[in-house]
Amino acid sequence: MSKYKVAVYAICKNEAHFVDRWMDSMDEADEVYVTDTGSSDSTVQKLRERGAIVNIINLDPWRFDVARNISLSFVSNNIDICVCTDLDEILEPGWRNLLEKAWTPQTTRLKYMYTWSFNPDGTPGVTFWYEKIHQRQYFRWIHPVHEVLQYYGSESDVYSLEGKIQLNHYPDPSKSRGQYLLLLEMSVKEDPDDDRNVHYLGREYMYYGMWDKCIETLKKHIEMPRSYWKDERSASMRFIARAYKVKNDLSESANWLYRAIAEAPHLREPFVEMAQLAYEERDWPRVYHMVEETLKIKERPAIY
Fold first, then answer.
1. How far apart are CA 115 and CA 128, in angstroms?
2. Residues of the chain with pLDDT under 50
3. Pairing of strands 81-84, 6-12
4. Which strands make up the sheet holding 159-169, listed edge to edge?
5. Which residue(s) pair with 184 in the sheet?
6. pLDDT recorded at residue 1
7. Is 105 within the bounds of a domain?
8. Percentage of the chain surpassing pLDDT 90?
9. Domain boundary among 169, 196, 214
10. Nearest-5° Cα angle at 229, 223 to 230
11. Could you tell me if 214 and 240 are in contact, meaning their C-beta atoms sit under 8 angstroms apart?
12. DSSP track, 51-86
């Protein structure tokens, strides 16, 4: 007999093609709640036919945190553990049993493994720890995009870990991320001291080819008092280097890659990007050296 009552909750829009696969992977939950934000296809009908509790909302202006908070509000108060996923994600079978074994009376949320992307041969690509499983009470989502869970209870926020729980992401490549930039600009405006979102905004400027804004924003990220996670700081330095490379300032690009290497010498990415830059400059000794240094790093960290 289960020790806990577990519910899955999600938001969606026009994802009928994902419904059956998603519901199959979530059938270990006691209840499944979905908040539809304006589907014009058969998403709602298919979800209800599969047993999901579906609520329909119209949220304007759009924010991911508000949408997720509304979706969480629909979850019954007698639920012990909430599992937040999206319909383009799949939990591998057996997750419920692993969750119940890892959860303790003191646990407020649980970390598990998330594969965000897969390689062309089907092997896991970018994989890292994730934390969207939480107790029903005293949690809310914050930030308009790249939203995160915030705990507001009076007791300690206690994490449990279970690396055998695996959530896999199979996104729809046709879906636009066009709203992300405006939402990230909003997020930074609302909380200018949040280093994480400043990093994300600078990265988004890079995706859009807005190179000067990318450089300016990521330099700001590195200088922020709360910017102390070396892996993310190194990523900002790599992205600055990419921007300078596109601007054809290869010397400045190399300078920022050296800084990225010094910041996080345990990561392969800065060495690889330096090797790529050296290759374009036909600097073969530097290519060889950087590749050798890359191959010395045997451990792949579980970070995004």
1. 7
2. none
3. parallel
4. 53-56, 31-36, 6-12, 81-84, 127-135, 109-115, 159-169, 89-91
5. none
6. 55
7. yes
8. 94
9. 169
10. 85
11. yes
12. T-EEEE---SS--HHHHHHHHHHTS-TT-SEEEE--
